[in-house]
């Protein structure tokens, strides 16, 4: 995504649903039903944190790095939300949560459990976790932010919400809770 690209911040859901995935539209429906207000930016596919720099600039808010991890048996999953500038260290997180072996879940698992494809994982995928297979892990540094931004299960848009709305109203509705972790993430 070009760094000089100007993005337009819109309030709420898109007026037209053409070109939008069912999963993305389901996120808007869910947030609207809960009465959670949000702003939206549409953009070309954003696959990396570098792609998200222009989005952060448009919103003046932090886009979270979201990593979908699994235990060695692929029977339980973790969605880790952390600041984009931190380096992810598997050993550091494993020690913090007391899980011996963590690896990245594959795209098929992400689709089945979170309803997201690689590059679009976000906290909004928890609305699809009906079997309660995912534990949400949140780096404590994110809790200091007034707003957080994440993809609505499709990486052609990004939403900006109040942090407290994500971690209270949204999580309560999805019947999930967060576990805070303190990651140094030093290279």
Structure description:
Strands 1, 2, 3, 4, 5, 6, 7, 8 and 9 form a 9-stranded mixed sheet that branches. The protein has helices at 22-34, 53-59, 90-97, 107-114, 163-174; strands at 9-11, 39-42, 62-71, 77-83, 102-104, 134-139, 147-150, 157-162, 178-181. It is globular. It is 26% helix and 25% strand. It has one domain (9-174): YbaK protein (Alpha-Beta Complex). With 187 residues, it is an alpha/beta fold. A hairpin with a 6-residue loop joins strand 7 (147-150) and strand 8 (157-162). Residues 10-20 have a biased composition (Basic and acidic residues). InterPro entries: ProX/PRXD1 (IPR040285), YbaK/aa-tRNA-synt-asso_dom_sf (IPR036754), YbaK/aa-tRNA-synth-assoc-dom (IPR007214). Residues 43-166 form the YbaK/aminoacyl-tRNA synthetase-associated domain.
Provide the fold topology:
Layout: E1 9-11, H1 22-34, E2 39-42, H2 53-59, E3 62-71, E4 77-83, H3 90-97, E5 102-104, H4 107-114, E6 134-139, E7 147-150, E8 157-162, H5 163-174, E9 178-181
Parallel strand pairs: 3-7, 4-6, 6-9
Antiparallel strand pairs: 1-2, 2-8, 3-4, 3-5, 7-8
Structure summary:
By secondary structure, the chain is of the alpha/beta class. The chain has helices at residues 22-34, 53-59, 90-97, 107-114, 163-174; strands at 9-11, 39-42, 62-71, 77-83, 102-104, 134-139, 147-150, 157-162, 178-181.
